[in-house]
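Reminder to self: tokens first, then the designed residues, so the page reads top to bottom the way the pipeline ran.
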């Protein structure tokens, strides 16, 4: 079964854990307990293919960020979360994305921009179109979500899996026949450069609402 290493990033308190736990366990965590680092596994069927998602729920708080480079290097898809109720959490994502691109040394990284807490419309300070514009600039997907009401939660992770599949399609026959040394297998899942599929990414630059 194909495995997907997904990383959830964003400032403290935006709802990274709430979104992850809602997706994996189907419950909403009301209590705020700052994360150090938690890892989850969930098997899902995406477009008829069984897929094992390994989701890393990271720390938004500065003091826990030492592991960042490592998980950015290993991650194949990234969920960048802000809260629609806090402007600073939106601003913080620009630097975060730059760091991901620098660490991965490519501009083509599967990514979903998420404006969470959309159930708190009365407290909204980041407009929907502001999120859409940023996602368009990044050529990434955009979703407004609510971990509390389970709005667009599954969509985040399914979209990331599809983005990864688009860049590195599963080709079972090829994998079986190929007789490559073990040392090559580690990096093979992350190699996108020079693949003909890159040309399709402009078309795949969709913005979901
Ligand atoms: N109303 C509402 N509250 C939410 C939502 N998502 C998260 N929360 C609340 O926001 C608080 C912080 O959520 P967490 O998921 O712990 O935030 P986090 O991003 O994981 O924070 P760190 O682990 O410190 O980085 C908690 O009290 C959650 O219940 C949402 O969609 N709507
Ligand atoms: Mg957390």
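Designed residues (209 positions):
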């Amino acid at each position: 079964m194909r495995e997907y290493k997904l990383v959830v990033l964003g400032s403290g308190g935006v709802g990274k854990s709430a979104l992850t736990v809602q997706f994996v366990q189907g419950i909403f965590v009301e209590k705020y307990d700052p994360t150090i680092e938690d890892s989850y596994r969930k098997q899902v069927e995406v477009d008829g293919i069984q897929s094992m998602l390994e989701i890393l729920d990271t720390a938004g708080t500065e003091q826990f960020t030492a592991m960042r480079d490592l998980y950015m290097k290993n991650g194949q898809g990234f969920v960048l979360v802000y809260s629609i109720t806090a402007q600073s959490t939106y601003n913080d994502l620009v630097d975060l994305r730059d760091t991901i691109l620098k660490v991965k040394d490519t501009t083509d990284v599967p990514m979903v921009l998420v404006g969470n807490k959309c159930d708190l419309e009365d407290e909204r300070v980041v407009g929907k179109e502001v999120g859409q514009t940023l996602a368009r600039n990044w050529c990434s997907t955009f979703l407004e979500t609510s971990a509390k009401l389970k709005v667009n939660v599954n969509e985040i992770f399914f979209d990331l899996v599809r983005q990864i599949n688009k860049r590195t399609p599963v080709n079972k026959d090829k994998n079986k026949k190929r007789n490559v040394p073990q040392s090559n297998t580690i990096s093979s899942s992350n190699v996108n450069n020079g693949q003909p599929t890159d040309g399709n990414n402009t078309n795949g630059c969709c913005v979901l609402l």
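Helices lie at 16-25, 68-74, 87-104, 128-138, 153-167, 172-177, 182-188.
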